[in-house]
Amino acid sequence: MKIFKTLREKASRKLAAVFTTVGTGLLAQPASAQGLEKARGILETLQQELTTIVPIAAAVILLVLGIAYAGRFIEKDTFVRWCIGVIIAGSAVQITAMIFN
């Protein structure tokens, strides 16, 4: 009986320490995020620029792929794979821009 009481006390202390650590960590997060307005502005600018650049780059890549396929530099299966990948990448940028704006 005494052994169980000792084990329960040890477990209780460890559990209290874990909850205290997690609670302290969660309280510290808002305080540390207050000075990050400059970083937020930079990331928003980067997002806007990527939203503009990626679709243009995707169109140029598709044009180059079409020329390479027409000139028989790449085979049809390679052309299709690359086109699908480029279309998905370009669409993903636009979809995320619509969702988060």
Short description:
Pfam families: TrbC. The protein is built from 3 helices and no strands.
- As a whole number of angstroms, the C-alpha radius of gyration is 27 Å
Give the helix level as a range of percent: over 70%
Number of domains: 2
Arithmetic mean of pLDDT: 81
Any low-confidence stretches, pLDDT <50, length ≥5? none
> What global shape is seen?
elongated
The number of helices is 3
How much strand content do the residues show?
under 5%
Output the helix-strand order.
HHH
List how many beta strands DSSP finds. Answer: 0
Structural class: mainly alpha
**Termini distance?**
62 Å
Largest sheet: none
Characterization of the model:
The protein is elongated. With 101 residues, it is mainly alpha-helical. The protein contains 3 helices and no strands. The mean pLDDT is 81. It has 2 domains: 1-34; 36-101. The longest helix has 34 residues, at 37-70.
Offer a few descriptive terms.
single chain; 101 residues; mainly alpha; 3 helices; transmembrane; plasmid
Please render the helix and strand layout as text.
Elements: H1 2-32, H2 37-70, H3 76-100
